[in-house]
Amino acid sequence: MRPILGAAALLLLVGCESVSSEDVATDAMYASFEATGEGEGVHATAILKVGGASATTYVNLEGGDRLVVEAGGVEVEMTESFVSDLYIYDADLSSVEVDTELVFRLERDSGDDALDSRCSLPMGLSVSAPEPVETLSRAIDDLEIAWSPSGQQDPVRAVVSGDCIWDELVEPQGDPGAATVPAGTLVSLDEENPAACVARVEVQRRRAGTVDPAFGEGGSIVCQQVAGSTFQSEP
After folding, report:
1. pLDDT tens column, 72-126
2. How big is the CA angle at 12 (ends 6 and 13), to the nearest 5 degrees?
């Protein structure tokens, strides 16, 4: 199973709380669904909240309520993990082909089901730059990112992360196959004592879907393909 949250993201959990699904109607929930492909397999995640997209009250499924995800006729029940009061639901599916539709379903023991949140998997990709052997200075070197194939209809973005830097989101227009992070853009976590670390570039090709309207607070859903590379990031 993938890590739920990075160290920096854990700071966002301060002040969050949870509530049992038995005490929440479906039309009071906000749903967040994501399916991520790396190679042939797909990792699906789901988070339910009360109070909208920016809320910090997370739903803990109890009393017979459950989440399932289906792709290509194969259905898998999602399993629960949690950090503090953040509840996240995960499932892994194998051999999911491009353009396959994934359907997320909230099935309730009592109350309204939400059975029709769906998105389809975009084309996969590979990253050719940066190369793992590269050493780049955050102060003086541009970070060049390259991926293929390019020119697809689904938009692409890149996330640069590492133990010594703040995450940086790069969002080029469309799917150009390359993007540049200018020197001086990446910021050290400790600017007074900047450190070196192995940093990761993850390129994501994303395709939005539709969330079941039974979730009265709305939601988000995306299917994506990801690929990445690493480099040595120096101050």
Report:
1. 999 999 999 998 889 999 999 998 999 999 999 999 998 899 999 999 999 999 9
2. 95
pLDDT (tens digit per residue) in 112-171: 999 999 999 999 999 999 999 999 999 999 999 999 999 999 999 999 999 999 999 999
Query: Which residue range is the domain that position 198 belongs to?
Result: 126-207+226-234
CB contact at 8 A, 188 and 195: yes
Q: How many domains is the chain partitioned into structurally? A: 2
Q: Which residues, 6+ apart, have CB-to-CB distance to 96 below 8 Å?
A: 37, 40, 41, 42, 71, 72, 102, 121
Q: Which of 122, 149, 178 is the last residue of a domain?
A: 122
Indicate whether 74 and 110 sit together in one domain: yes
CA distances from 218 to 26, 52, 87, 119 (A): 10, 7, 18, 15
Establish if 54 belongs to a structural domain.
Answer: yes
